[in-house]
Design brief:
By secondary structure, this protein is mainly beta. Helices cover 11% and strands 39% of the residues. The strands form 15 sheets. Strands 2, 5, 6, 9, 10 and 11 form a six-stranded mixed β-sheet that branches.
Length: 754
């Protein structure tokens, strides 16, 4: 790399300027670098030849003796000037300097007469265009306005504001515009202050709000806002986006004008002026936008580099500005044109030169330009070349071996071959950019290379370089050859039986197939040699139904993909419809709709069955409860009857046991409401064990002698010795084996189980 002092670069560049008619103009240009350096000037891209009117000074600056906006031949000295410097290593161009003539137009806005009541606000305005921007001053009654008076505010754009008017403010006003081109006076306007200060309430009102401004950084912006009302409104400022305005460089002129000094890009935004009635929320607003532009400047400059032949050189140039600048590259002062080995990336901020050679050695410039200004930076590319390097390899040939393989061969260079340590084969698709190139290293004793893993039907370019420890040779001639076409790969095939006479062949599209134009489908009975087909199918078809088949035999189905290079390998599948038919008979397919309906019916039946079952259980419980209660009451009647003197059985045939303890009360109605006691029922309700029966018999024998059957008395038990327990159902007493009815026996009643 070279030191900065040895680089060809500008120390001073020409700058924008405004020239005065018939006055001399000097444009400065100073360059440093390795001598000799030649400096020339251009105007609007055309070379300036020294003449009596314009010539170059010894220090490289351009001198224009009498600047003319329009000359007699129609030409003009206005335009864009740049300075070019050249030495042995290259050429650089300065930034463009815009030269304009100083001018001043007539006033296009003059002050107007005004009549304002005392205490009010008066505003006068005049506007005029000029280069440079005219300075406008105000006169009252032919004397300069006293700017020390706080009630008088002069704004840069030619506005005069007078607040809190008094009678002495009346007079005649006019403005004076001045720049290096001329001095001009506006028409006069009369201000009349009438009456006394009014005390009538008036809503706040903004007479003039801020206008939209577009300025450059470091300039000063004045946003006007003048309001009236009674009481006098309070003027405040804010940003529409809510960000704070800040305090640095901020000043309020008069009663509400906002002045921002030393503008930056961050000051851009929409500003809102508000006039508020004191002590209330009554307000009026007006707004205007401020756009601050910044000329282009570099964040990263390109750096000079040195690279060996055949390598890659990269220059980076990053610029910022508002609006964002456009970047242009020059090579030795000329617009750089891209090619296969010269590429621009990242919005032109990166310049890449691939496979550099000695012709690429030059000075490369980055020009950044926007509406606010332009700048430039340069860097030099030095291509390293060592004496005694090998000459390029000879007789480079490339032969196609297959769809994915090419063999490249060459012969050794003609000169300087002793120091060769190897070769490098450069490979890329012919349609790809240079940066997609890749390399394969080869030993110095090998003069051929088999390049594999290539794409079918694709063109590739190849060239060779011979390498030594001191550098590489120049590239050999480039040879281009294409790989063979390739037939498609085997498709995946699936067979689905539709019914006893039809099957469906399906396959999936895949990039693994390669380039294909379509498919061919064949099928046959396995015991036959002849195929049915081919059935030609388009490349986007993925299924085909084969019908009218014989269910008793096995079929073979074959599918292959084809293209212009031929048929690919086929995929074969065998299918038997007989097994499917048998499975269908043994396991008939379900009728989903019917099953669903059956499921719905079964569910409904289950629910109904549950309801019926619950109902039955409830009825059974109720039946048992009421049946048990009836038996209990019946036993109570039996107890009542057993506790009273008994009459012979023959005499109590009409006597009944009355339910609910109503024996006495309803004795006359017992034939209707009562129920006679059946001894067999008592025996069933209160069965007596044999031992108890014997005891009862013994007790009876001990107490009284035997008596005839009809006069047998039933033993009685006191109520306090009688209790009722829950019965266990027993079968009724069986008749004797003889079949005769049982003899009448004394009824002793149940044993005391209490």
């Amino acid at each position: 790399d070279f030191g900065r002092s040895s680089e060809l670069a500008f120390v001073v560049e020409p700058s924008d300027d405004i020239a005065v008619q018939e006055q001399p103009l000097i444009l400065y240009c100073q360059v440093e670098g390795i001598q000799p350096i030649t400096i020339t000037w251009r105007k609007n891209g055309a070379m300036i030849v020294d003449s009596e009117n314009a010539f170059m000074l010894a220090n490289g600056s351009l001198y224009v003796s009498r600047f003319q906006r329009v000359r007699g031949d129609g030409s003009s000295d206005e335009g864009e000037y740049d300075c070019m410097a050249q030495n042995y290593y290259g050429l650089v161009v300065s930034r463009k300097a815009k030269i304009q003539a100083a001018t001043m137009s007539d006033f296009h806005i003059h002050p107007q007469n005004a009549v304002v009541e005392e205490g009010g606000v008066a505003r006068f305005q005049c506007q005029i265009h000029g280069l440079p921007e005219p300075v406008i001053l105000w006169h009252k009654n032919s004397m300069p306005v006293n700017t020390d008076n706080e009630r008088y505010t002069l704004l840069p754009k030619g506005v005069l504001q007078i607040t809190g008017l008094r009678a002495e403010d009346s007079g005649i006003f006019h403005c004076v515009a001045t720049n290096i081109a001329n001095v001009k006076f506006s028409r006069e306007a009369r201000l009349t202050v009438s009456g006394s200060h009014s005390t009538v309430y008036k809503d706040p009102m903004i007479l003039v709000g801020p206008e939209n401004l577009t300025l450059t950084v470091h300039q000063t912006a004045v946003l006007e806002c003048i309001a009236t009302g009674n009481p006098r409104p309070i003027v405040s400022w804010s940003r529409l986006d809510g960000r704070p305005i800040g305090v640095e460089g901020i000043q309020v002129l008069g009663t509400g004008n906002l002045m921002i000094s030393d503008l930056t890009v961050q000051h851009s935004g929409i500003y809102v002026c508000a006039a508020n009635k004191p002590g209330t929320r009554v307000r009026r607003t007006a707004q205007g936008s401020l756009v601050v532009q910044a000329p282009a400047e570099f964040v990263q400059h390109p750096q000079s580099i040195s690279r060996p032949v055949g390598t890659t050189a990269i220059f980076t140039c990053v610029a910022q500005g508002e609006p964002p600048p456009q970047i242009t590259w020059l090579r030795n002062g000329q617009i750089l044109e891209t090619s296969d080995h010269i590429k621009l990336k990242n919005n032109n901020s990166t310049l890449s030169i691939y496979g550099i050679n000695q012709t690429d050695e030059a000075i490369y410039q980055c020009l950044a330009e926007n509406s606010a200004g332009s700048t430039q930076a340069s860097a030099r590319l030095t291509v390293l070349w060592a004496d005694g390097l090998p000459s390029p390899p000879q007789a480079v040939r490339a032969e196609t071996v297959s769809a994915t393989t090419i063999q490249v061969s060459w012969e050794k260079p003609l000169q300087n071959t002793k120091e060769i340590i190897g070769y490098v084969l450069h490979i890329r698709k012919a349609a790809d950019p240079v940066e997609m190139e890749y390399q394969e290293a080869v030993s110095k004793s090998t003069f051929q290379q088999l390049v594999t893993d290539l794409e079918p039907s694709t063109s590739y370019s190849f060239y060779i370089k011979a390498y030594t420890s001191r550098g590489a040779s120049k590239a050999s001639e480039v040879t281009v050859v294409s790989t063979l076409g390739e037939v498609p790969a085997m498709p995946s095939l699936f067979i689905k039986v539709i019914n006893s006479t039809a099957v469906q062949a399906t396959w999936e599209p895949s990039i693994k197939l390669g380039q294909h134009e379509g498919f061919k489908l064949y099928y046959r009975k396995v015991h036959l040699a002849q195929y049915t087909g081919p059935v030609l199918l388009a490349s986007n078809v993925t299924a085909y139904n084969i019908t009218h088949l014989d269910a008793s035999v096995v079929y073979e189905v074959k599918l292959l993909a084809y293209n212009q290079h031929g048929d690919g390998d086929s995929t074969v599948r065998f299918v038997s419809l007989r097994e499917t038919v048998e499975r269908t008979v043994l396991n008939p397919p379900c009728d989903c709709m019917k099953d669903e309906q059956n499921n719905k019916t079964s569910t409904t039946g289950i629910i109904i069955g549950i309801h019926i079952g619950v109902t039955c259980i409830i009825f059974c419980i109720l039946f048992l409860m009421f049946g048990y209660r009836g038996r209990l009451l019946m036993c109570k009647n039996v107890q009542e009857q057993l506790s009273t003197p008994q009459i012979p059985r023959s005499q109590r045939s009409a006597a009944g046991l009355v339910l609910n303890g109503a024996a006495r009360r309803d004795r006359d109605d017992r034939d209707l409401n009562g129920k006679q006691l059946d001894m067999n029922e008592l025996e069933r309700l209160f069965p007596a064990s044999p031992s108890q029966e014997q005891q009862d018999k013994g007790m009876t024998s001990a107490r009284s002698p035997p008596a005839p059957h009809d006069d047998t008395q039933i033993s009685t038990l006191p109520l306090d010795e009688f209790s009722i327990i829950e019965e266990q159902p027993d079968p009724l007493p069986k008749a004797p084996r003889g079949g005769s009815p049982p003899a009448a026996a004394p009824d002793h009643g149940p044993a005391n189980e209490g």
